[in-house]
Structures are given as structure tokens and as C-alpha cells.
Amino acid sequence: MSKIELDIQNIGGISDASFSFGPGTTLVVGRNASNKTSLLRSVQFALGADEVPVRSGADLASVRLSLDDTEIQRQARRNGAGYEISDDSWLSDPDDTDLVNQFACLLGTNPLRSAVEKGEDVESLLKEPIDIEALESERSEKMSRKRDLRRDVERLDDIDERLADHTDELAETRERIETLDSELDDLYAEQNDTETDDERLEELREQRTDLRTERENYRDQIDELEETIDRLTDRRSTVESDLETAREHADSHDIERLKQERESVREELTEITERIDILQSVLSANRELLDSEYAGSLGYEPGLVDDELSCWACGNPAPRSDFEDTVDELQEVLKQDKQRKREREPELSDIENDIEAATDARRRVQKLESDLTDIDQQLQQRRDSLEQKRTELERIEAELDDIADEIETHESERAESRSDLATEIEETRLELQTLRRDAERLEETIEDLESKRDERERKRAEIEQLSADIRSLTDRIENQEQELRDVFNETMDDLIDALDFERIERVRLTGNFDIVIAREVDGVVREDSIEHLAESERAVIGLVLGLAGFLVYDVDEVSPLLLVDSLGAFDASRTERLIEYFTDTTRFLLAAVHPEVAARMDYETVSMT
């Protein structure tokens, strides 16, 4: 039969001890301050917890745990103000470690038990293992992507109409080209018979053709520049809108205030840490004075009224009870400082995240401002170029007017001797040239529109897939939350029935993961919030909720051990029923109890003194 072998050095109040536990339930028996919790904290450290109470005055704490064919040894060595902890632990997956710390190590410092006892929110703690936040984040990203795609598709709504118009225009242009080609052949044939040679007129016509070609080129360039300016103007509007949004987001974060808050929290944590070190040193000195076997040599004077001790700090005698009261007071202050430190450390991380978010927002504003400047520069360049092209076009128009006048004069001089055949041929050639360029431009435009249409269809398909994904994620979130509540409530019902509380009829989680208590008041069962329960009743609910989580998340498949401590809120009878209830749910159950409770049960025991 497999057993757990445990060797502990310098953890809590344990200097050097070895223990052996068989399968099933083992009761860790002892009075208060008998190192029951130190033993359980040692096991928790071996499983993978990052915190361990190193024995005062020791530089190295270690624990060795062996079970079946597996053995691990974990150490914590003092390193300046902190500890260097070895990586070797029973659990290698951080998620498994968090799960076990949350629901299998139900000591007095357990975060879930503490939250219930203080009336704090438990939703995030209960839902943490199913990682609903990750699902909600994924859904939010997909919804944002879907909105972006819809805006893109809306901008392409008229693509089919534009494509049809350009396709019809291209067909008409090609038909006109075929007609003009035929007409031009006929004109050339007629010219061979009727046209006489006139070099000056031919030169003028060539100049006119070249100028007309040049004019068409400038017109095309002007059209392209105007389209580019329109696109840049639209782009500028989009960037301006994004910039306004980014500025609003950046303005919503006050980095200087956040940095001041961070500095304030850091200073407070430093003060608390220094005070903790001082308190621990003073507390250690007082404990050594009270517990030393050689108290007489240190100032203990037996036989006097109240047994006096000489103060280690000032040397004056004082009653032993005063020193004991001082130790209690120091322990309470130390506990409060440690609690305050645990509360403030997450706040420092949150402030750091806010500063990073604010810095990213400012970078986003700078990037958009740079983009806006680039667009303005491009717009100015295109507008300057457009003005130049229009000036050149006016020059060409003037030259064409001059040439037209000269041709008219030249032709009028020989009007009686020639026909307008050459002019018709030239105009036909020019029209053909223009139409062919138009056809090429239309083909390019159609190709671009078809590409955009394909892009629109791809985005529509992606929108449909995103919609399906969003629905699926929404269903998963809602179903997992409901399943979590249902299983928790069923498990809580079983535990409450097993513990047979007189005043508590039921404990359940609402849709908002609030804890609601149904209890009997004056013979009537009424629902109440946990804030109205006594501290001892909240302690009971906190432990029961943690044990319910152990069952809900099948923690026994991850950890071979379930640790239970701080059962003072339960009477002996309920403690017995609680332990009996969980005996068959885990391979090894270690429960810290007082001797009078252990005497009622027939389980393996480990005595702590």
C-alpha cells in the first residue's frame, strides 16, 4: 500500500521532522500553535505553491515528498529581501497549481475562504479555472473584426452597379471601335483617289494630332489626380476620425496620476515590508524570551507575583503576562500588515497595466498624427501637380486653337480644290486612338472592380463565419456559467445536508454568482445575503464553498491530496461528518483538528506538540 513520506526542515515552527501518511484520511492533531498549519503549508509548498513560511533565523527551508515511484524535493533559500525557490514541485502545470491552491489547499489563508469571510466578490475566484475571461476576450475581438469588415463591405455596396456600368460602357466602346475601323478603311481608300499632297497642311495636322494626344494624356492625368485626391481625402477623413477616437482614449488615462499612484503604492509596500521585518524580529525576540529553557539566566524570576521577566530591550522587569500580551498584539499587527501587503500588491500590477495601456494609446495617437501629416503632404503634392497639369492643358488648348485657326485658313485657301476627307480621316484616327485608350482604361477599371468584388465576397464569407463563431462563443460562455452554477448548487446542497446545519437550510449561487443563504428565522425560511451572517457562519460557508469547488472541478484528478485547516467554526460533530463526507473523494485527506475532535473518529493520526 502506497504511503506519503514527508521530510520537513525549517518551515513555520518545524525545524526538522519526518511524517508518513497512509491512503485515506489522516488527522493532524494538536492544540493551537502546535505547528499543524506548518505541516499543511509544507505539503502545499511541495505541491507547487510559491509561498512558504521559512522558519525564523533559517536561511534554507526544504520539503521532500515521495509517493509511489515519484519523489520531489523543493527548497526556499533566502536571497536578499526575498527567497529563491527551486522549480521542482509535484505539479508542473501553473494552471493545475492554481487550481490546487484554490480548491485543494483549504487552509485559513485560502483566497476563496478569505473572500467569503470578508463578504467580498467570489465570482472571479469560482470561474477562474474555466477561463471565461479568455472566451469573452476572444468574442470581443471577433465582434470588433466583424464591425470592421461590415464597414468595408458597406463601402463596396455599389460595386456591382459600377461594374455593370463599366462593362456596358466597354462593350459600347469596342463596338464603336469596330465601326470606326471600317469607316477609316473606307476613308483611306477614298483618299487614294481624291487627296492631293500638301506638306504644310499635313504638318499642321500632325501637330494637331500630337497636341490632341498630349491633351488627352493630360486629361487622363488630371482625372487620375482628381481620383487620387478624392481617395486621399476619404482616407484623411477616416484617419481624422480614428485620431479623434484615439485621442479620447489617450485622454482618458492620466499617466502622471497613474505614475504617482504607482509610486505611492510602491512606497506603501516598502514601508509595510520594512515594518513586517521589524515586527518579525521583535516578535521573535519576545517569543525566545518566553519560550527559552534558560529564562532564568535571561531575567525570569519565578516565585514573584505574576512571574516577572527582564525586558530584553530596556532591561526593566515586567510581568510575564505583559510579554504574552505584547506577543499577541505584535502577531495581530503583523497579520494586518501582511494582509495589507497582499491586498496592495495586485493594485501595483493593475496600475502598471494601466500605464502600459495609456502609453500604447499615446503611441497610437502619434502614429495617426504622423499618418495625417503624410496624407496632407501627399494631398498638397497632388494638388500642386493638378494645378500644373491644368496650366499645361490650357496651354495645349491655346495651341490647338491657334493650329485650328491656321488649318482653317489654309484649308479655306484651297477649299475649292479639296474636300474634308483628310480631316475626317484624322478625326476618325484621333477618335479611334482615344477610344482604344478608353477601352484599355475601362478594362483596367473592370479588373480592379472585379478584384474588389471578390474581396467583398471574401469579407462577407468571413462575416458569416465570424457570426457563427460569436454565437458559438456566446453559447459556450452562457452554458459554462450555468453548468458551473448548477453543479456548485447541487454540491452545496449535498454538503449542507451532510453537515445538518440547524439555521442554514440552503446555500446557492445566483445568476450573478452572489452567495444567497436560505436559513430559518423564527420558524420561517428566508433568503439572506452572506453579509448578514455572523463571522463564524461565513467561515463555515467559505470552507463548504471551497470543498464544493474541489468536487466541481475534479481536483482529485490533479492532486492526490486534500488539505483542510482552520475548522474552528465547526463543532466536533460537524467536523466529523465533514471529514467523513470527503474521505472517499480524494486519495489522501489531511485535516488539522483538536484532540477532542480526533477522539471521536477512527482515523490515522499524526500528533503535533
Automatic annotation (TrEMBL):
SUPFAM superfamilies: P-loop containing nucleoside triphosphate hydrolases (SSF52540). Residues 6-274 form the Rad50/SbcC-type AAA domain. The keyword DNA repair applies. Pfam families: AAA_23. Keywords: ATP-binding, Coiled coil, DNA damage, DNA repair, Nucleotide-binding. It comes from Halorientalis regularis. This is DNA repair protein RecN. Residues 320-490 form a coiled coil. GO terms for biological process: DNA recombination; double-strand break repair. Belongs to the RecN family. Residues 236-259 are annotated as: Disordered. The keyword ATP-binding applies. GO terms for molecular function: ATP binding; ATP hydrolysis activity.
